[in-house]
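During the first year of the project, the team set up a workflow for recording each protein of interest as an amino acid sequence followed immediately by a discrete structure-token representation. This format lets reviewers and collaborators read both layers of information side by side without switching files. As required by the reporting guidelines, we include two representative entries from the current panel. The first entry is reproduced here exactly as it appears in our internal archive.
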Amino acid sequence: MNQSNPININKLNTSRFFIVMILLMNLGYNTQCQNAQKKSEVNSKTVIKQNGTMKLYPLTKEETYVIVNKGTERPYTGEYTDVFKKGTYLCKQCHSPLYKSDSKFHSGCGWPSFDDEIKGAVKKTLDADGQRTEITCANCDGHLGHVFYGEGLTDKDTRHCVNSISMIFEEDAVKTSTAKAIFAGGCFWGVEYYFQHAKGVISTSVGYTGGFKKNPTYKEVCSHTTGHIEAMEVTYDPSQTSYEELAKLFFEIHDPTQSNGQGNDIGPQYLSVIFYLDDNQKSISEKLISQLQLKGYKVATQLKKASKFWPAEDYHQQYYEKEGGVPYCHKRVSRF
């Protein structure tokens, strides 16, 4: 019987051990590379990447050409050249605020022009040839364009000539506010008819006010036992019209000189009254009455501090809109 050499067996086992270890190491390395590659792919798709404490947004090829490589977009092709909405222009690369819209002006050069920047937002650097001054975002150094002086285009005598592609625009939020006014000028159907079609009016409601009974009915008001007057409450947008414009309309759609009603509608519920909601409305109404008096009108319109307004029954609301026709005792006459 042949006996194996114990030394050769040990050498064989040692070789097998090293081969297994090498295979395991290669497997681990490949796995690590694959994970790193996947991580790189995820990062390349991330919308925002972190650069120290600065967030930089990914750029397209065209944006990189201008913002990073200091190129220039063709004149009259930029998105913001002729945009003059209220808002703020931000750096495309880092979204830092650069310019307010109130500093933007039309220069005719083919690029967005500003005569001032937000304080500390823009860095100015003389070009290497010493001919022009480059402007860059002070936060991320993204190229914006060039600044020029002495052209006399604005009072500040400055023109930041900026590539549209270097910016994004955030429009100011529109502040919506409303105001109210209450007018009484005879049958409220006719008064509402004219106010419904007025610029800036959001809504109208006819009803009763100036009396002492809570939530009166039309029948009760007509019985002259509640002290109420037929009136109209208008809700309007102060950015589109003014109380003075609405008050002028009121004086022109009824006869402010009639003291016992309006047209053939006679009675205390049909009197001409402005129910003012504050001192400003009172002051404006007094001014308009004075203007009419100077024109020779014997104004009978009363001014009263507004009290609770009670909406009338549904069948009175937007009467002419529902029934058709035009008011029988209201017609607009120019008086101002």
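The second entry, processed by the same pipeline in the following quarter, appears below.
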Amino acid sequence: MQALVENVKNAIVGTIKGTGEIVNAVTETVSGSLATALKGAGSVGKALTESVTDVASGVIQGTTQVGGDLGKATKGAVMGVLKGTKEVGGEALDAVSSTVQSLVKATADVGGDVATVARQAMEGTIEGASSVGIKGVDAIAAAAAGAIQGVGGVGKAATQTAGDVARGLIQGASNVGGDIGSAARGVLLGVLRSTKDLSGQTAETLAATAGSVVKATADVGGDIASTARGAVEGAIQGAKEIGVDAADAASAAATGALKAAGDISTTAAEQVQRAATGMIAGVKVVVKAPFSKS
């Protein structure tokens, strides 16, 4: 409803102008607005998705209007959605995924920094999940999938943006001690949920995105083997969801992960080779070509 978007936007504008504080102010505004909306519309399915989408849009519009920090607003929005959803007994994981998807899309629409927004969304997800008692690994994967869906599509530009968002998600998970492998799983799941096919371009996007999460994990000193395996698991889960060949999707992800690892070191390549190939989630995973650092 446009009315909900406007209400949230106006509340955000007033709050930021009044206090200058963003994260807590947005959290409270969002949780209150969402709880009120869901009590009237119902807390599941389409009503939940539409409500969190409207709330996220209002947050980004309001923050942009007063020149506020979109990253901090995003963090507050995710935490507020988790709090508001819990208050009305809604499905938290669906709410997280829809919220982060909407936040990333709305940020892209206003020309904001989607990587920063993705990072802060992940931080908000992890902190918010612990406060409302849902499993962190599941919330992390849901947020990551939503963020990548917010980018949408395939092709060079979308792949580049997805890579930027993926790096932001890994950084966010690392910053607050979240499980990076779960983030990688969600990232690759999000790619397939966005494309809904396994064309040549989609396979290239899977490979490039898997490579991005491996490099991002190396940059934060994380476990690249766990990340690579998570990426392959996400590709398999996504392929099964949309009804395409899971072995082909897994192969694309593993190949991209191994290529990125080979660019890091021979040792990294060996770790990823062991972790991301063979039988994973009931699928035989093979890479298309050997990659190693000469």
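For the second entry, the following points were noted during internal review. The longest strand covers residues 278-280. Residues 159 and 205 are 6 Å apart (CA to CA). Both points are flagged for discussion at the upcoming steering committee meeting.
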